[in-house]
Amino acid sequence: MHVYVRAPPEKRINIIQNRRYRMFYYKITDTSDGSEQFLKPSEARRFLSLEDDALKAYADMGAKFGRFVINKLTAEQALYEKEELRLKRQKTAEADSRREYIAEHGASIWCGYLLFAAKFLHRTSAAVSIDINIRTFRNADISGITMPCVTVYASPSDYPGWYVARLFDHGHPLNVHIRRRTVEEIRADIIRRFPGMIPFAPGADDEPCIVEIWL
Length: 215
What we know:
By secondary structure, the chain is an alpha+beta fold. 43% of the residues lie in helices and 23% in strands. It has helices spanning 9-22, 41-48, 52-61, 75-120, 135-138, 183-193, and strands spanning 24-30, 36-39, 64-65, 68-74, 148-154, 163-169, 172-180, 199-200, 210-214. The longest helix is centred in the middle third of the chain and has 46 residues, at 75-120. The radius of gyration is 31 Å and the shape is rod-shaped. The N and C termini lie far apart (91 Å). The model is unreliable at 1-5 and 115-145 (pLDDT under 50).
């Protein structure tokens, strides 16, 4: 006659925790495309058609089996790496989606901004072209798009006798300026340094020494 005694709750919890601690996974990396899978031992055996001893041997050596690299991870390591991989894939997908949207709608975004500048900032475009350079939008990174502004001054108080171009971002001056003797030299430098910008005439409320604003 067999008598079965149920373990107390605290001991059962320890048994479950120890089982989890002893659990492990195989990380299978496909060297052809860099993809990764995290499989339980039984899943890894079926996926690779390997016996348990051979699978362990490859994992212990970190060796390649065909195009696959096999590594053995604890359950905690596998959970951490799976979450890291998920976040990486999510970040990549968001960046790809943003690039696709900009590639498709970049021209309309740019034209919309020009219309906004002309209508609400009371600027008149001095050089409108249907062949607008939208490289700034196509190359925008995942941090988003910024729209700097370059203001050209004629003989400002700090540089009398010079034409000076100052870079602003969201209305805040940056420690960047170009100083030249002629406005033509200033324009050439702006075009070279900030491709895609277009000059606008100053508004009625702008300082008298402002020659033009590039957006």
